[in-house]
Amino acid sequence: MDRRFLIACIAVAFALPTACVVAENSKPTPVLKGVTGAGRFERTKNGAVEAASDSAGPVGVQPRRLSAGVVTQCRPLQGGQKARAVLYSYLLDAQFSCGIGTGSTVELQPDPTTARGKCCDAAGTNCTLNISDVVGVTGSTSQDKEVVTLKLDDVPTNLKGQLHFKCVTKGTESEYCIVTVDMPAPFEENQCSFDRNVKLTPIEGPNTETAFDCRGPVTSVPTDAQVFTGDDCTGNPSKLKDLIPGATLEKESNIFRLRVAALPTTAQNLCFKCIYRDPRTNAPAPTATCKVTVAVAGTSKTTTASTTSAAEGITVKSFAAVAFAFFSSAALHS
């Protein structure tokens, strides 16, 4: 066998493992751009809620009431006027006032004492409609002094439905005010409530932040000393620092921000609890829990990948050794 050919073959055999290992290790490392999607919470400014206009959000967007205890004023005027209220998601109620007091000449239609489950049409000409036919669940009105409270028995199924009530001066149909109660806008994906859970975008890299919203009449909120694991938030709670060293949970008003500085060795599925008073009439218990879960990747997957790459390099080197032995044998027998 030509000695120059043999030397060339041996050189190629030794070059192969180096080239393969370099190619394997030169794969680009993914760069974390930050948390996006369902778990991303953008900071907003919470303004005061006016009694006459308690809607929130841009024009053209379905409103959401930001706080409880908002009373919309609807006083009868000649030729009629209109007012709007928004159902409060966390209590399933809305409140308004017709200015009805002792000796008042104003009355509410439908009558909250004899037609509690009724409402009017938009024009106020028919006040015998069933609340359940409009929003999909039963409800009723009650009056305490000047304040009228609309209360639904469950979460409305028709969020586009509007309930109308008429404040009218007795003895005349030309002096009135129609109050329209809008159903609330759907929740954002990271917002808790008594009838829903939240699943945040997984955390897959260090220096990552995510957030969730526990606004409303909560009876218990998450802390960094009461962190559960698993989707069901069962078992004994742990401290956040014990599950993910260096991680923090900070409360800003009703927003909770989870910051992970470094990934834990073992992947974790964290679970936080926001406990609400359940306003549903036939609720199975006085309180209901919103479970907030977020998966946090572990560094062990990186170790596994490195081990796999090393094994592939060893395999290539073994192939080179076999090739060297083959060509050496051929040289001896030539």
TrEMBL record:
Keywords, sorted A to Z: Signal
Pfam families: SAG
Segments passing through the bilayer: none
SUPFAM superfamilies: Major surface antigen p30, SAG1
One term under GO cellular component: membrane
Transmembrane helix among keywords: no
Origin: domain of life: Eukaryota
Entries under InterPro entries matching the protein: SRS_dom, SRS_dom_sf
Signal peptide: 1-23
Domain SRS residue range list: 204-296
Protein name in UniProt: SRS domain-containing protein
